Amino acid sequence: MKPLTSYSCELTDGQSKALQAWLRSHDYEFRDVPYARFAGSKADVGVVFYESGKLVVQGKGTQEFVEFVLEPQVLGEARLGYEAVLNPEIFLPRIGVDESGKGDFFGPMCVAGVYANESILKAWAEVGVRDSKTVGSDRRIAELAKTIRETRGCVFAVVPIGNTAYNRLYAQMNNVNRLLAWGHARTIENLMAERHRMKPPPVRAVSDQFAKNKQTVARALMPLGREIELVQRHKAESDLAVAAASILARNEYVTRLAGLSQQFGLEFPKGASAAVEAIGKEFVEKYGFENLSKVAKMHFRTSANLSRSLKEPAEGPKNSNSTLKQDERAGRRHRGAHLSDQ
Fold it and tell me: What structural domains and CATH numbers belong to the chain?
């Protein structure tokens, strides 16, 4: 059997403190990692504990670390090798769905879905597939996306909703969650159309619960999507199938944002911030406000600020700080067949 080189699990606050203390007492070298509470490495193993409560162990020494440190001294139980016993549903064949770009002013919103069975899930665990928000670089996102797409037996679908289409749909629905529910439903439907390639067939679709009412997505499901169980839960990215979908969605978003930057000769930043508004002003000066909808999500307050700045050039946008902060909070909350922009 191939040695384990990657392992992940959830830790309680008490367990994370015990692990951090153990790492310090054994001279692990600590470093800063985005979205992580702490990260340490030594010899052939690296340990990262994320703000989400997820622990990731990677390196040639992973198996030894899990068996002789993590399980006996932190978890207090033997889990390695007993995943299917401890959680019988962990390897069920399923579809995972996630999105990216929802909280970004510039660029599209992209929804992705993947089909995974037991062998696929085990393969992804070995190479360190995890929630895209915990991956530190676009380059690593691209590497993981390539691995996911090339995994034997994996079936995937990506639905990129370009800015022109996004703004048109938002004008019709007047609600981001309804738009996102449509994107999730469309992705599930596209995958279910390929279910003849899925062995064994999926028993459920899993996604994050982004709307307060679960019926928001359930009502959006199309005929094929209604044939399997829909599971919505908070922090669904802890499910490896959803995590893989988040990687594909983020890679699609980053790729398309780069394409827009090249097309218009401007470096469009991610998120929603003062830097984003500054580039928005530059775009408007160069191409006119009427073309902003080709690259941005027009219901964001940033677009209202840009419109107001055109009408009041001397005074500049009013209340920009508070509105930008609202957009920033939105960006932090959602970090996360094709539909053309036409």
Answer: 6-86 (3.30.310.10), 89-342 (3.30.420.10)
